Amino acid sequence: MHWITGCAGAAAISGLTLLAVPVLAFAAYSLLFGLRGLGLDLTDETYLYTPDGTSANLAVFSHMVLGALIMVLAPLQLIASLRARFPAAHRVLGRVVVTASIVTALGGLGYIALRGSLAGPLMDAGFALYGVLVLVAAIQAWRHARAGAYARHRAWALRLLVLVMGSLIYRLHYALWYLLTDGLGSTAQLDGPFDQVQYVAFYLPYLLALELWLRRSAPAPHAAR
Ligand code: HEM
């Protein structure tokens, strides 16, 4: 029995370690890209840089820095043993994650408003919806924690986590698709059929799956708060 528990524990730890690799790699990429964009002129390197566009650059590159931060911090908030041992740290980190999520979403939305995304209105719409959902999830997670409504807090915190990971999932979808099809239906302007599905496919199906899981695992109505 102990052996089985030990194996399950080892499998869980190996699984989490495997997941941590792409998360940390993408967070490091995003952090470096963001810091370079905030400090250097990247005109010749990326279309995301606006020459003499202080607000647009601040919006897009600060969203990369803070996005990287939440991608690393948000999963830590889920670890029950950490929450139980260091409740004060959970509260402090929670405030950091919520604030950084709000600023990340506002940065992404600000960039869309100022410059627009590479592929235009459809991509703008998909990414803007993503930003609004991040905003709503962060605010709701915070509100319900403040009110002591922990079941609701947990549900919104999970939604926020799935959304934050969406940013990595977006790139993983592309990596897998290029590996399997050599980029069928994807263009450099990100306006091919595959790209268009991607405008929402990196977060909506995962949010839906989470909703189904939350519904199936919900306690009896009188127990939920
Ligand atoms: C959750 C954490 C996030 C991280 C780590 C992140 C990171 C990045 C990075 C690294 C890029 C540069 C493109 C690339 O190199 O692939 C980017 C682009 C972009 N991000 Fe985010 N992002 C996050 C969340 C958001 C949110 C919430 C929005 C909300 C609207 C957003 C909107 C955008 C937009 C519009 C672009 C430019 C797309 C284009 O025109 O190519 N991001 N993001």
Largest sheet: none
Helix-strand sequence: HHHHHHHH
Helical segment count: 8
| Cα-to-Cα separation, first versus last residue | 35 Å
* Outline: globular
Describe the structure.
Helix content is 78%, strand content 0%. The protein has 225 residues and is mainly α. The relative contact order is 0.09. Bound molecules: protoporphyrin IX containing FE.
Key traits:
225 residues; mainly alpha; binds protoporphyrin IX containing FE
Question: Would you summarize the structure shown here?
Answer:
It is built from 8 helices and no strands.
What does the secondary structure layout of this molecule look like, with pairings?
Layout: H1 2-39, H2 54-76, H3 80-85, H4 87-114, H5 121-146, H6 150-181, H7 193-201, H8 204-216
The structure holds protoporphyrin IX containing FE.
